[in-house]
Specification:
Layout lengths: L3 H8 L10 H13 L3 E7 L4 H9 L11 E6 L6 H10 L3 H4 L6 E3 L4 E3 L1 H4 L5 H7 L10 H6 L4 E7 L4 H4 L5 E6 L2 H14 L2 E8 L1 H9 L4 H22 L4 E6 L5 E2 L2 E5 L14 E2 L3 E4 L6 H11 L4 E5 H7 L18 E5 L3 E5 L14 E2 L5 H4 E7 L1
Parallel strand pairs: 1-7, 1-8, 5-6, 5-7, 10-15
Antiparallel strand pairs: 2-17, 3-4, 8-17, 9-16, 11-12, 12-14, 13-14
Length: about 375
């Protein structure tokens, strides 16, 4: 019988490499900053290695990376923005912090949360005032470590609610709107030289690929625009400043050719305790006691070309979440089983507060384990 890793590879998925990952890249930058080397770290959402390869293949576009050191690294599992951002801020693997998708099962609050949205919108008062938010959101210990010796600057787009980032001491939290504003602000901070670590999150490349697809001209031109603005606005200011710049991504995206809709009326719900959670390419479910075999047979018959069902315990022991053990206090967030979408398939569960899938189609998606989703660049400038 093949192992879980062998089965994942048979389907066509890429196993994560936590030793050479976006998480290890920011850990290295934080440690360098603690040794006195000032750092700028930009997390460009959706800047997969496939985009960098397309840029390097162009005779003219490759000049945008002139002077940079570029290497291929791994994303984490799941390759979900919330999961990776949490790892980047905490220094923890998904197995350690337990935020394993855009939708998170928060048993202690009796609800499935969309943390970046809910904290700012539907359940802001409940989550921030009456509930113990620390039970859901992991503390940003890695960034706290970066801010321990010299001041930290955290730049983030205005649509992210400050409370979801968490309180950071010795930190300047700065909101911005648009790429030029972000780069100009980093340029200003570099000029002043007061911060030992400047951390910025840039979301737009991800948004473009969701809408137009990762192989689109719009995606390529957006990535080129990002690098062109970087070359014109920020790189000249870095020269002689003493700052080291690192750029990486949370994930890449894969093209979606099939959307599978699931709702509370779907047959699969007969076997589940509650709705699934997680992301469109990696869903977590809690199966009713004694119905594991029936669920597996249902998935084999109904979703054979769309998804594969894995036992959560086996996935955890395989180490794909970063550790081979998960603390009992957060283990429930991984469910009893995982539905992993097959290549180019998106699983869509229609929650009451979401738009129907027919009006919510995207040409690109992520959170799975395809090569396109898992390969990210680490681009460095000294």
């Amino acid at each position: 019988m093949p192992s879980v890793k062998q089965e994942l590879e048979r389907i066509g998925y890429v196993l994560p490499d936590y030793r050479n990952s976006n998480l290890s890249a920011i850990k290295g930058a934080v440690e360098r900053s603690r040794k006195g080397e000032k750092q700028v770290f930009i997390l460009a959402d959706g800047l997969g290695y496939n985009l960098i390869e397309r840029i390097l293949r162009g005779k003219e576009s490759r000049r945008l990376l002139q002077g940079a050191r570029v290497r291929r690294a791994s994303s984490l599992v799941p390759s979900s923005t919330l999961t990776v951002l949490t790892s980047m801020e905490t220094g923890q693997t998904p197995a350690e912090h337990g935020l394993v998708g855009w939708n998170v099962y928060a048993k202690e609050h009796g609800m499935i949360l969309m943390p970046y949205r809910d904290a700012a919108q539907i359940s802001r008062d409940f989550v921030l005032s009456r509930a113990h938010i620390s039970n859901v959101f992991a503390r940003p210990r890695l960034l706290m470590r970066a801010a321990a010796k010299r001041r930290l600057a955290y730049l983030y787009p205005e649509f992210i609610n400050k409370e979801t980032i968490g309180a950071l001491e010795n930190c300047d939290s700065i909101q911005y709107t648009g790429l030029p504003a972000m780069l100009l602000k980093i340029k200003e901070l570099v000029g002043k030289g007061a911060h030992g670590f400047i951390y910025a999150y840039y979301p737009d490349l991800d948004s473009v690929q969701h809408i137009y697809g990762p192989g689109s001209e719009a995606a390529l031109r957006s990535a080129m625009l990002f690098l062109r603005e970087l070359n014109e606005v920020l790189l000249p200011r870095l020269e002689g400043s003493g700052y080291h710049l690192t750029i990486t991504a949370d994930h890449g995206l894969t093209a979606i050719t099939r959307v599978v809709e699931i709702s509370g009326k779907s047959g699969i719900m007969r076997y589940l305790i509650a709705p699934p959670w997680g992301d469109s390419r990696m869903m977590y479910v809690n199966v009713q006691h004694g119905m594991e075999g029936a669920l597996r047979e249902h998935v084999r018959k109904r979703y054979a070309r769309d998804a594969a069902l894995f036992d959560t315990e086996e996935l955890i022991r395989s180490g794909i979440f970063g550790k081979k053990r998960v603390a009992e206090s957060i283990k429930y967030r991984f469910g009893t089983h995982v539905l992993l979408a097959r290549p180019h398939v998106k699983l869509y569960y229609e929650y009451p507060y979401t738009r129907p899938a027919k009006r919510f189609r995207m040409l690109g998606s992520h959170s799975g384990m395809s090569a396109e989703e898992m390969a990210v660049p680490v681009v460095s400038y000294s």
